[in-house]
Amino acid sequence: MKILALDTSTMMASCAVMDENKVLGEYSLNQEATHSEKLVPMIKEILDSLNLKVKDIDVYGVALGPGSFTGLRIGVSTVKTMAHLFDKPVVGVSTLEALAYNLPFNEIVVPMIDARRERVYTGIYTWKNGKLNTLMKPDVLNIRDLLEILKSYENVVVNGDGVKLHEDLIKDALQHKVQISTMGNGYCRATSIGEITYIKYKLGETMNYYTLVPEYLRESQAQRDLKEKE
Fold it and tell me: Domains plus CATH for the chain?
């Protein structure tokens, strides 16, 4: 069973192809070009390298967010189009859950995605018996408010682009209680999306490609500006 997984939640565009729980290839790119320019060529290149066609994909997995509003729309619409074209199942995955999945078997894992204005999209996760469990559901918080919450925990591991942005503040607040992930596990990776997709697919947790939508957690800047004018 071939899985195509995509993550366009942040500046990092990532796609991966898996054969059930075996990684066949992953392609990640962080550059100024928009996801609308680079995503489809990335998918084509990785499929061509594996001598596969889009019709060979059995299941699609995609990061639903939170993250960049524009990036999420591009990733979700791309998966919806391909899944609709070949009538294949799709699985939506929380970007925060996928980031936490990069750091297996740690006691407390806290992914942070930049939400601007000193805020981060975040959640608190822990590994138990080989499974990732949610201690705090995804939310958008001021970084200082999040750090106050985290002071009650020991052995916290953090990752995501919000960590790089607020690294000094995190270290000052949590000191010996916190570890920052390695660079390779610090960004959104399509392989984590793919692995979670496979797990959810086996559990029957697929979604309808007609109704698949991003999970923004907050209104877009355009929506907020409109409300302010009103």
Answer: 2-95+188-229 (3.30.420.40), 103-185 (3.30.420.40)
